[in-house]
């Protein structure tokens, strides 16, 4: 009789509790390097309920800069980072015992634009010679891609122009607005806002010039991935749903979806920026970071003199989750 009562107790009380625990919403803390329309699929995944559908609760924090983003990951202040994949190479080169691994790609081109202070008719890259160029942080993907593109057009950034790199990432737009530099490298929507306000003029796209590169990826410490494989897979699945959604919907529809994340930006401007990024293929259409893109990344880093050492694709890139969700 006691055994029957015990079995009844297990069936009625214990098993439902275990099931409820397994189905409980899992929180994932995400640190994004900046807030940008460039990351539209992430915000779509939040607003269209794709994370919620996977049983995930996303706590999104903007950390404003690659160094701060990696500090958040390494100090366990975040579970997942959205940042340039070059940062994982820097951490690995320092001999980390718990490397940061890229598991899902979000963007596949550079997301910055060349903005001129004065209106330039029929811009050509040789017009940068002799100018003052307000660049991005040394060692970061925007700056490395900027130098890569300039060299591609036979401009030596170390001798053919005055390169400014000592301005903090968050202060670059205000520095240019206050008079620093003839040209500046800016993300959207700042580039378009400056154009609307007459503070500058977009003359070229670094994304169009650089080719495909794993510009921004989701990454976590290897220990986190091993301990939370199911959550990482669900996270990747939500991102893939969002990538497909963005690819299948108009710029206006995407802009309307992500508008809550850009309350101070006019809907028409958000739409313009989404259209611009879509046209140049900036949004990855799946989360798989392939070997060719990884090698292109390291070539760009090497050209900029910032590659500490070459790292094999399989060492810092985990495509298992991405390939599984795409295959399904």
Give the DSSP E fraction (strand runs of 2 or more residues): 15-25%
State the CATH superfamily name of the largest domain: Periplasmic binding protein-like II
Helix content: 40-55%
Domain module tally: 2
Number of strands: 10
Can you tell me the residue ranges where pLDDT is under 50 for at least 5 consecutive residues? Answer: 17-21
Q: Report the total helices.
A: 16
Largest sheet: 5 strands, mixed
- The name of the CATH topology of the largest domain is D-Maltodextrin-Binding Protein, domain 2
N- and C-termini, Cα separation: 48 Å
Global outline = globular
CATH architecture of the largest domain: 3-Layer(aba) Sandwich
CATH class of the largest domain: Alpha Beta
Tell me the radius of gyration.
22 Å
Q: Give me the side-by-side strand order of the main sheet.
A: 2-1-3-10-4
| Structural class computed from helices and strand pairing | alpha/beta
Mean pLDDT comes to 93
- The helix/strand order is HEHHEHEHEEEHEHEHEHEHHHHHHH
Pfam families: NMT1 (PF09084)
Family: Belongs to the bacterial solute-binding protein SsuA/TauA family.
InterPro entries: SsuA/THI5 (IPR015168)
Main location: periplasm
């Amino acid at each position: 009789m006691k055994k029957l009562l015990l079995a009844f107790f297990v069936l009625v009380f214990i098993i439902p509790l275990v099931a409820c625990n397994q189905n409980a919403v899992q929180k994932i803390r995400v640190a994004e390097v900046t807030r940008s329309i460039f990351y539209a699929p992430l915000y779509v995944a939040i607003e269209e309920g794709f994370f919620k559908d996977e049983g995930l609760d996303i706590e999104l924090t903007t950390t404003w800069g690659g160094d701060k983003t990696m500090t958040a990951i390494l100090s366990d202040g975040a579970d997942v980072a959205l940042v340039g994949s070059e940062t994982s190479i820097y951490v690995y080169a320092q001999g980390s015992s718990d490397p940061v691994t890229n598991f899902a790609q979000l963007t596949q081109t550079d997301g910055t634009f060349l903005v001129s202070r004065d209106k330039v008719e029929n811009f050509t890259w040789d017009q940068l010679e002799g100018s003052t160029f307000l660049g991005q942080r040394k060692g970061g993907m925007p700056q490395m891609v900027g130098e890569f593109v300039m060299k591609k057009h036979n401009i030596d950034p170390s001798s053919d122009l005055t390169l400014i790199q000592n301005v903090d990432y968050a202060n670059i737009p205000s520095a240019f607005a206050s008079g620093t530099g003839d040209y500046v490298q800016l993300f959207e929507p700042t580039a378009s806002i400056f154009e609307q306000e007459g503070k500058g003029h977009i003359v070229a796209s670094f994304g169009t010039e650089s080719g495909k590169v794993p510009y921004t990826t989701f990454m976590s410490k290897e220990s986190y991935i091993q301990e939370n494989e199911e959550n990482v897979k669900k996270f990747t699945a939500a991102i893939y749903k969002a990538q497909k959604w963005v690819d299948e919907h108009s710029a206006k529809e995407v802009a309307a979806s992500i508008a809550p994340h850009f309350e101070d930006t006019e809907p028409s401007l958000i739409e313009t920026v989404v259209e611009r990024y879509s046209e140049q293929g900036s949004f990855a259409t799946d989360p798989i970071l392939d070997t060719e893109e990884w090698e292109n990344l390291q070539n760009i880093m090497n050209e900029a003199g910032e590659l500490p050492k070459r790292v094999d694709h399989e060492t810092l890139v985990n495509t298992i989750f991405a390939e599984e969700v795409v295959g399904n």
